[in-house]
Amino acid sequence: MEVYVRLCDDGDRDYAFQISKDDTISTKIKHIFNSNVSQFKDPNIKFTLSDIIVTRPTIFHNYEPTSYCKSTHPGYLTEGGCLLFHYDAADKQYLEPLDEDKPLFEQLWPGQLIVPQWDYNTTSVGIIGATLLLWLYTDLPDCISPTPGICLTNQLSRLLIPIIEDYFGNHQMGSKLREEIQVNYSSVPAQWTFFFLHVLKIAIIVLFTRLGVINPLTFNPIKLFKLRNFDLANRSNDMKITLKRLGWIGSNRASYDQYQQNFHSYMVKKYGGTVPLYKAGLLKIAAKPGISLNKGEGFQSPLNERFTGSTFKEITKSGKFILSEEYFIELENVLKAEVENANGDIGLMNELVQRFRRFGLYEPSDKLKELVRKRKEISIEQSRIDDDLAKVKATEDTASKKKNE
């Protein structure tokens, strides 16, 4: 079974992992984030995933999650009858804790999202905060600083002056630098201007680190040195062993916007342009494919009914799109048929499988097409009912106001 794990708490990094029937959070998912090689109990494994890619949200967080949850947001139903994760998938209201020692097969639907929960590392926050404050203090204007002239630029100038004068013989430049590092060399307005720019620089650094834009793998110089000399080309076998042990597939699930753009391009290419697509009556569908699911649908389907429920019967009976083993078998059969039609073209076969893992099906079976059609009809009808109710309420409110007047 394949599930998705959100790395770096980033919706664009929902990566697929393969799990077996007995795998748990403790025996599988934790290993993605744990940098301790001995966890695998396999002498052939020389490194872990967190040794080569960043997995934590920011430098302010711990390297390993404190707990793991599953997203129960219903999801987004594509035109091919597959599910994408909603942008709100990791909102607190949609998260349910996972039992770390219970098989994931018993807790998750195939393709469901695991969302690690992260805590801030107080040590990292303290060290980084103290460093930035110290840096800010050293750049206080000389006119108010208890220790004027100690800014980093002045310290570098003091180191360069003897080098410039003794090794390069440029006494004029040395004298100029010596003059510039004197206390109150710059005017008071200039000192405050430079300090404001420094505050702005610190604020930008904090913003970028808080958003994860600046998120290095580690600050450990020994680890950085090892990483710099890490030769993936010559260690491809070690890499394969590690990734296989982790269940890493390498595909990440697309967001709705990414899916919409890719699906639109696919449809335009398939029909030979926008005009033929319009004439086929599919331009609106290509521009806005799929539909958002409601409460009780998608990943909120009862897991205990996986092998007894029927997706295709339930859509007719109650108008809800629920998951079931029957549904996943249909997806698998369609994908198998697509791969078989590739006529042994390995490149095309890989492309089809990768596209399925990222975007879902683009050429669904008639059974899946009918499923999507019925669900969209129900959504349209529900929208009409909601609009009528809104109009009735507006009319009643207007009448009530007139009566009170």
Secondary-structure topology with pairs:
Layout: E1 2-6, E2 14-18, H1 25-33, E3 67-71, E4 76-77, E5 83-84, E6 95-97, E7 113-117, H2 122-138, H3 152-167, H4 171-180, H5 188-211, H6 221-228, H7 236-246, E8 248-252, H8 256-271, H9 274-279, H10 283-287, E9 291-292, H11 311-317, H12 325-340, H13 346-359, H14 366-404
List keywords for this structure.
49% helix, three-stranded antiparallel sheet, 405 residues
Description:
The chain has 405 residues and is of the alpha+beta class. It contains 14 helices and nine strands. It has helices at 25-33, 122-138, 152-167, 171-180, 188-211, 221-228, 236-246, 256-271, 274-279, 283-287, 311-317, 325-340, 346-359, 366-404; strands at residues 2-6, 14-18, 67-71, 76-77, 83-84, 95-97, 113-117, 248-252, 291-292. It has a six-stranded mixed sheet with strand order 6-3-7-1-2-8. It is extended, with a radius of gyration of 29 Å. It holds the Pfam family Gsf2. Keywords: Membrane, Transmembrane, Transmembrane helix. InterPro entries: Gsf2 (IPR022757). The chain crosses the membrane at residues 192-213.
Shape: extended
- Summarize the main sheet: 6 strands, mixed
Give the class from helix and strand content and strand pairing: alpha+beta
Helix content: 40-55%
InterPro entries: Gsf2 (IPR022757)
Keywords: Membrane, Transmembrane, Transmembrane helix
Pfam family, one: Gsf2
Transmembrane segments: 192-213
